[in-house]
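User: I'm new to structure prediction. If I give you an amino acid sequence, what do you actually give back? Let's try with this one:
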Amino acid sequence: MSFKHSLEGILDRGKAELKNFADKHGAPSVPQSSKPAPPIPTSSKPTALSLQPYWQPLFEPSIPVSHHFQHECGQHGWGNNEAQNYTEDPTNSFHTPDHKLVLRAVVNNSAPTNATKYTSARLISHQKLGRQRGCLVATITPPCAAGVWPAFWLLPSQPFTWPNDGEVDIMETWNGDGVNHSCLHWGHYNGEDWNKHRVQESHMPNIGSQQGHTYAFAWDQPDHGQGGKAVWYIDGCPVMKAGIPEGTRRMEDWRIIINVAMGGNVCQGRMPADGEYHLVIHDIRLCGEPAGGWYSFERDWTAAPEGHPM
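Assistant: Good question. You get back a string of structure tokens that encode the predicted 3D arrangement of the chain. For your 310 residues, that looks like this:
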């Protein structure tokens, strides 16, 4: 018998024995899992904190606040008849052991001079936005009280002309009313410039929560630095959109401003009671794109409401 025929005989006998075993014992069953299969992911959208920042200041107690920010000081009303004296004293701005930046407004009506009755801080970042498109993200707990006006906002680098060069307000609330104001300004408060202001009010009863809320501002501007799109976010939800007005300063040249004002026109003459009022910055970062990337930005641009004139 040839080797080929011998091999074929062995294979045929093996098949016959396997069939005979299956007929007697039945085919083995396929194991079934008692747990449902995991769902197929429908989105790989990263959170804001997962995005790689190109700037993120460290809030270490050993690092002075002035390392990341310039203190803008003075008590001259700041264009709104405000009462506070902005100082560079560590009482009014400091880093905490748990890595937060705190701006503290202090009211002491028994103080001997006007300069010490109302003290606070106003900070301007050394860092510019620095790019023609990107996203600024910050988690913030503002103070909420009558006569107190905390803000996290943007202005062009000095020297600039207000309001022609523009202003962007990202977190702004006053008098403890639980409302955030997302704003874009590039005109005066007069009849002629009525259409050069955009705002959306977000009602947030827990705006002062200790965990903070995350505010973001994403911008996308052509290389020549004129026009473009901007979207404001709160906790990842787009709350306002606006076209970047022609003639305003190109976005890469803007800086971050953080301050706590007291009294004045916006607070409608209300003044805070004696005490301390803390604006807590849990985290700030500048990222190359918003959460979800520029595809999500375009989707958010379509979905977000336009700011209305003031």
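You can read the tokens as a compact description of the fold. Here is one thing that stands out. The CA atoms of residues 150 and 277 lie 10 Å apart.
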